[in-house]
Each structure stands twice: as C-alpha cells, then as structure tokens.
Amino acid sequence: MKQVYSSIDLGSDTVKIVVCELYKGKLNLLAAASVPSHGIKKGLITDPIAAKECITSALDKVEGMLGFKIEKLLAVIPSYFTEYSLIKGEAKIEGDVITGQDIMNTYKDGVRGKIPQSQEFVTVLPIDFKINDRSVLKTPSGFPGEKLFARAIMATAPKKNIYSVVTVLEDLGIEVTDITLGPISNIFTYKTKDMYENVGIGIDMGSETTTVTLYNRCLPVKSSIVQKGGRDIDQRIAKIFGLSLDDAKRIKETFALAYKKNCSQNSFIEVETKNKEKIKISQLELTEIVMEELFEILTLVKKDINLLTNRQIQYIIVSGGASEIRDLEYLLNDVLHNHIKIGNIKTMGVRHNKYSVALGSILYFVDVLKTEGSDYSMLDKNDMESLSSPDRNSNISGDSMLGKVFGYFFGE
Predict the structure, then answer these.
(1) 46 with 89, same domain?
(2) Residue 7 and residue 155 share a domain
(3) Residue 254 is assigned to a structural domain of this protein
(4) What is the model's pTM?
C-alpha cells in the first residue's frame, strides 16, 4: 500500500505545503503549492487570523490538485532559541525482538528530567543503538536481545514557538501529526552519504532571517539566526528606485545576478515606480545593489560560523528562497571560500529551494518510521479509494496531540 504524507512550512514570505507518497521505497511528489504569507513575521505568527487565511488558501490550492481533503500535516516550528542536547537512554526489551516501542522507551529514559523548564520537547534524532552493550546499529527494529541502549540528539524549543503554530493549525481542523525544525528538515533534504562522518554548516537564506546551523554526522548541534534575509534586498531595491516591494522582489528574482562577473552592461529592464513613472534599470546597477546586500548577510553568517565552532568544516550547504539568485556561488566562494554548494533538490516538482524545509519534513518523518520499523500513512485505504474532491465541510478529527512523534512523550 502507498503511504501519503503532507507537510507545511510557514515562512515569512510564503506558506509552502508539500504532499508526497512513498511507494516501494521511493518518494514521489503528489502536489506542492506556495502562497504569499500574511500574519507571519520572521517565522513567528503575529496575526493568527491573517495566518489562517493564507494557510487556508494554500490548503485549497493543494487540495484542488489532489482531489481530496488534507486533514493531517507535519508542521515546521520556528527555530528561535532552539537547543540541541546529547541524551543517553536504555530500556529492557519487552518481547522476543526489538520493536518501535522499545526504541521509544530508550528515548523516554534519556529525555526524562532533561527538558529545560522554559523549553518544550520537539523531537529525538538517533545517533546509534547498542543491543546488550555490543552491536552498534542505526535501525535495531527486529533484532533479538535483552537490553537496548541509545544515544541521540534531543531538540527542544520555547513553548510559544510550538503552541502558536499548532494552535493555528488545529483551529483550522488540521491534526498535527508531528512537529520538526527547519535545520532538521533541511539536512534531510540535502544530505549525502559522504556527509555522515563530517562536520558541516547549513545556511538557510529565508525572507527575513538567515539560519546558520552546525551539523556533526548530519545531526544539528547548534544554530544561530542572522536577522537579515531576502526581503532586506527587496526593500533596498524598492527604496532606491521608488518601486513597490512586490516589483522589487520580481526584478531581483528574474533580472538581477548575485555577482557582477556575468553582468551585461547593455541589459535593461523597464519598470513602473509607485508614482506611475516608467524607468529603465540596468542589470549591472541592480546587481551591484543585490551583491552589496548579500555580501553583508554572508559576512554576518561567516561571523556566526566562527562563533558556532572552531573545528574544520568539510561542507557548507546553502538553501532557502534567496539561494536561488543567479550566480550566488561566486559570491559564496569569495566570502566563505571552500567546500560550499547551493542545495539541489532532486525530487521532481519541488526543485526550488524554498520547498527544502517542507520536503525535508517528510523525509525526516519517513526516517523516523524506518527507525521504528513502523508503517503509517496520513490517508487510510478507504481515504485513498473514496476521497475524490475537496470538502471543506467534512467531519474533522479533533483528537490531535501537540508534538507527538508517533506516541513520543506528549500526552503522558
């Protein structure tokens, strides 16, 4: 049977929803959509009513593509003041072989008493497992033994980060199946086998902020947030040329480069100012503005990288909507030097880096299920067969549980 998963990323610029199916071990895109954000600032919900309107718009768009109603979502919460901690736990194996519940029991043992009072649990990311203090495994489900030991990274975040997102979604009748964080989702989108034994950096260039994350073995260790992003570029362009913010963003995305090397001095774009005056802007002039703003952002990122670690960095992956500006790789090499690459999403239909977090949330969740040895879909067999059109008035499940990761911790 196919498994279907859906996720939502509430960005400051756009709300993104991605729906995928897992069939015979391959993840296929079913639908993806983005709509302009309202009521969301720097990843935090500032106006719940406006946020609900744009979320509903995104849901309508995706449901129109799918032909059925979305009632469950994986949700990404803001990364402000996130903490990552090493935990160790152990549990007695209850049956003949290790099950998902045994794995959960080791996590519970490791988490117990470790969550800061001001924080809320988000998830656990396993490092490795030992059976009877011998074998080291990544997926122990199905193996025999008497005792299971686990090392993992526990992620926690301020309560308001979680409750604001979950409350808005549940008010819309959406069951939050799981929550995760942008730095976790991003690494699941881009990681490769050669990254597992290395230390690296993830740079997520969003609309209003840029998140810098230190990874070890593809697990987040620490994060920081630079309070600048793609919108700062838009505002600078708009101010200089007297344009609306939307027009400034449009010409940045379609005409500007991030580096002067390949600029054409003879290329111009005609736009209308807010005063209804038609003006021509050269690609070189526009690119110089974009390059200056990006240089400032990347200089701040470089400072944060030096604060996060003094270890040698083997890779730097750059993602987020602002990473799509053409020729950014030249500026990245100038400022950050070696081992840099701009993220490349391989899933057909969501190649734009603005979808990296929403897609990565699904990849993360599938990995959780694999570790547990579980089989789960957000649509049951009857739904798959009978749902043929969106129905905003259908009965909605009201028994969702905050932050549950397949029965982890919450509600106990």
Answers:
(1) no
(2) no
(3) no
(4) 0.88
Q: Is residue 166 part of a domain?
A: yes
pLDDT digits (tens, 9 = 90+) for 304-341: 999 999 999 999 999 999 999 999 999 999 999 878 99
Residue 401 pLDDT > 60, yes or no? no
Cα 96 from Cα 226, distance rounded (Å): 50
Residue with tokens 């690459």: 341
> What's the total number of domains in the chain?
2
Most confident by average pLDDT, 40-44, 111-115, 294-298 = 294-298
Length of the chain: 412
Q: 363: domain CATH number?
A: 3.30.420.40
Count the neighbouring beta carbons within 10 Å of the beta carbon of residue 255: 18
Confidence at residue 1, expressed as pLDDT on a 0 to 100 scale: 61
Does residue 203 lie within any of the structural domains?
Answer: no
Query: Residue 54 corresponds to which tokens in the numbers above?
Result: 């744009």
Q: Mark whether 74 and 166 lie in a shared domain.
A: yes
Task: Tell me: do 65 and 94 sit in the same domain.
Answer: no
pLDDT surpassing 70 at residue 217: yes
